[in-house]
Design brief:
8 helices, 240 residues
């Protein structure tokens, strides 16, 4: 005769039934644990949404991962290259994932402190920017250094750095306008405006194209209040 298989859940239930703790007391303890956890997460989320640029958090330097410490100059360079913003989390309108809250809670327990200052790197569209007309969560350490807490969301488009290159400076933008004007002039069929073509005619057409395209770019820039990457990476204003 074969012995019946052991059902671990049934065995576990028997052990629990032998305990003095009643179901009512057990549920109350679990409720208290979960309530405290909810309160902790609510407090952390409130700190994130009200972060107002406190200069530093008093971390225990011996417990920090050196690979997650970044200087403001490094953050600025990335923001300029990819046209991103680095702002207090109070401006962030995206959803902070539960995983990030859990990491913050663990950090607070390890370092025996309450983290109150948070900064975030993200595209402009993810911020609630003040109108004067995919994100990395940081905690300031002090002296220009920031500690990376969590990264989430989708990675940036592989061509974003190249696409944002014209907006790094007026020289880059002028070069792009020059290049587009030159290519556009080359696409104009010979003899479209006269029976014979010449170098003088080409450069006249090129100058005309350059003025037209440059005018559109300048109008768009002024109308939309746009600015170059170095001027907006840490700006809280929409039209910049």
């Amino acid at each position: 005769m074969l012995l019946p298989k052991t059902n671990i859940e049934q065995k576990l239930s028997k052990v629990r039934n032998k305990q003095i703790l009643s179901d009512e007391t057990r549920m109350k303890e679990v409720y208290d644990i979960l309530s405290n956890l909810d309160n902790e997460l609510e407090r952390i989320e409130d700190n994130i949404t009200t972060s107002r640029g406190i200069p530093f958090n008093n971390f225990n330097i011996d417990l920090l991962d050196s690979g997650k410490i970044y200087h403001i100059d490094e953050i600025k360079q990335i923001c300029i290259d990819y046209r991103l913003r680095f702002l207090d989390t109070k401006y962030f309108k995206g959803q902070i994932p539960a995983e990030a809250l859990s990491i913050i809670k663990t950090l607070e327990k390890e370092h025996d402190l309450e983290i109150k200052a948070f900064k975030i790197i993200a595209p402009s569209k993810l911020f609630k920017l003040e109108d004067k007309d995919d994100p990395l969560l940081f905690a300031p350490i002090g002296n220009g250094y920031h500690y990376l807490i969590h990264q989430w969301g989708n990675d940036l488009h592989p061509l974003r750095k190249l696409l944002m290159w014209p907006f790094k400076s007026i020289v880059n933008l002028a070069f792009l306008v020059f290049l587009i004007s030159f290519v556009t002039t080359l696409l104009i069929p010979d003899g479209l405006f006269s029976k014979s073509s010449s170098n003088a005619q080409f450069w006249i057409l090129f100058f005309f194209m350059f003025k037209c395209i440059a005018s559109v770019v300048i109008f768009y820039g002024f109308a939309m209040g746009k600015n170059f990457n170095p001027a907006i990476w840490n700006s809280k204003y929409f039209n910049s």
